[in-house]
Design goal:
Chains A, B: InterPro entries: HTH_LacI (IPR000843), LacI/GalR-like_sensor (IPR046335), Lambda_DNA-bd_dom_sf (IPR010982), Peripla_BP_I (IPR028082). 2 copies of one chain form a homodimer. The first copy, chain A, is α/β, with parallel strands linked by helices. Chain A folds into 3 domains: 3-35, no CATH class; 49-152 and 282-310, Response regulator (Rossmann fold), CATH 3.40.50; 154-281, Rossmann fold. Chain A has 12 helices and 12 strands. The first copy, chain A, has a 6-stranded parallel beta sheet, with helices on both faces. In chain A, helix 11 (237-249) links the parallel strand 8 (231-234) and strand 9. In chain A, helix 1 (3-10) packs across helix 2 and helix 6 (93-105) runs parallel beside helix 7 (122-130). Chain A starts with a helix and ends in a 13-residue tail after the last strand. At the A-B interface, helix 3, helix 4, helix 5, strand 2 and helix 6 of A face helix 3, helix 4, helix 5, strand 2 and helix 6 of B. Strand 2 of chain A pairs antiparallel with strand 2 of chain B. Chain A binds a DNA duplex through residues 1-8, 11, 13, 15-17, 20, 35-45.
Amino acid sequence: MSKGLVSLAINDRPGVSEATRLRVLEVADRLGWRPSLPARTLSTSRTYALGLVLRRDLRIVAADPFYPAFMAGIETVLTDEGRVLVLSVVGSAEAEERAYRTFAADRRVDGAFLNDLRHDDHRVDLLRELGIPAVLVGRPDGPAPFPSVVLDDAPGVTAAVHHLVDLGHRAIAHVGGDPALLHARHRRRAFEDAVAARGLVPTAVVDTDFSMAQGASATAALLAGRTRPTAIVYANDPMAIAGLGVLQEAGTQVPDAMSVVGFDGTEMARHTHPPLTTVRSDPQEWGAAAARTLLALTTSGSAASVELPPAQLVVARSTGPAPGPTD
Amino acid sequence: MSKGLVSLAINDRPGVSEATRLRVLEVADRLGWRPSLPARTLSTSRTYALGLVLRRDLRIVAADPFYPAFMAGIETVLTDEGRVLVLSVVGSAEAEERAYRTFAADRRVDGAFLNDLRHDDHRVDLLRELGIPAVLVGRPDGPAPFPSVVLDDAPGVTAAVHHLVDLGHRAIAHVGGDPALLHARHRRRAFEDAVAARGLVPTAVVDTDFSMAQGASATAALLAGRTRPTAIVYANDPMAIAGLGVLQEAGTQVPDAMSVVGFDGTEMARHTHPPLTTVRSDPQEWGAAAARTLLALTTSGSAASVELPPAQLVVARSTGPAPGPTD
DNA sequence: CTGAAAGCGCTTACAG
DNA sequence: CTGAAAGCGCTTACAG
């Protein structure tokens, strides 16, 4: 039983009789022997690791339940495949680029997840150039050399606007996210299109950085504005919750005087007062699907893009009939 | 310029003249050459990676801003040291043990963080046995073979109780966390001791799993109980926020009819209505300190335990004078 | 179907 | 202070 034979048997390569393979596996198991990963990596240059770089302001990451759920979804598939997740949390675009370059130089990972897509996202070229296979988490705004895993935000936002208009609202505002991020643009665009489809004009559309602080100040600004909306659609739940706080501090009843819609469908949204009407996506399944796709890409060299079920409106008690004279 | 020489120069080993070392580094830099990590790992068995296994119910992880901040803190020190974080998110004790065993078998990491300490935590023995150096994040309840990095919860909880008693509260309840976790026990113990120190008896102490759902139901139970508290101290901010929701749904004014105290000092606590009195700790600094300690341990073989500044009470508007006839 | 050999790219004694 | 050699533990053609 030579080294080479064992290797062939362990790696399910042809050229080993089934009987021998079983014997090898049995002996390895009995001895508790496992091939050394560093040695294997040195000769095959496969690391059995996938990389995720998070670039976000800490204040935002900390309040946003997306990433923990997304990562948990990734793990559900990696664990079974003997893979591991290498995580990097960075605070700037420069640090993010350094992180990817280090991944490449150190051969840390077989592939990477690319989250929070941007317009003309130069990280796509960077990863291609570095030779790191990637999966795009979200819909890119142009042709891309990598497969994408998409969960469409638009239908949920559209449904939210129709829900509000059906309740009699005519003055609806949007507190959007960071316009540098494509998904924030998608939500904003879906909002604007849906409002227009009902023959209305948005009362206001405010960009933010997705933080609760900016969600709060945007809400305060809307309350102080010349034309005050009767409903606000927020680009994420944390901002909607901060908005709820501002409204209640100002004595504005929700939903009697103001309807509020969040986005994410977080646990938190179920426990506010009143519980939040929100648009639910499934970040855990998103993570799992992204991991499956990236795994396929790194092992077979190619993988098809995936379209997940779109985000859905979940109506709770933060939305109600428009106040004042309705027709 | 032989391979060996280059290696000595790159690794700052003695036996190379300063002039040659500089020349080697200059040439490496010009050629963009970096030593191959897998090869280096194979000969030195150092991976330059640190491991973190998260075992928590997803519902809790997602609502809890501790981990994102803690991990960001870790990253601030790892990045500069050319290290990387390997993350595993698991749902059960068995999966957690498997994760550590895989870390060891695959030589994935040089050391690991041990969070969410438990009574007689058998992971400590497991890691010792597997030969994985670790740092304990929190105060262990007994002698341990690893250094710990402690941020004491008690002073903040104690201050919260005194604050409430000073406001005239005599009926104070505690919605605790998961009693399997030492930090939940510490918070509970600090609560009970502080109440006793003021000559009072807790109106109630309820254990939970730290989830918003159980925070909400514990609050509902307290409202329905025979002796109703005038103040509730929660073991984390998410539960306090869920409690706020339940109280407001029930028409109980905060703080007029009920004072509420959270724990964590999250961003979220600043944006509720009313803003939450809470106990602030610094999870990011905690992560950074834990990373520094683990780095020292893995490189030098030993590291001293660290005691960080304790958690502090931050008074906001969810606490006020006790309702009814005060003396 | 099996065994002996080279190679992955470093580090580390060991001579010179 | 420098160069040649062995070794880390696998995988992979290449002969037998």
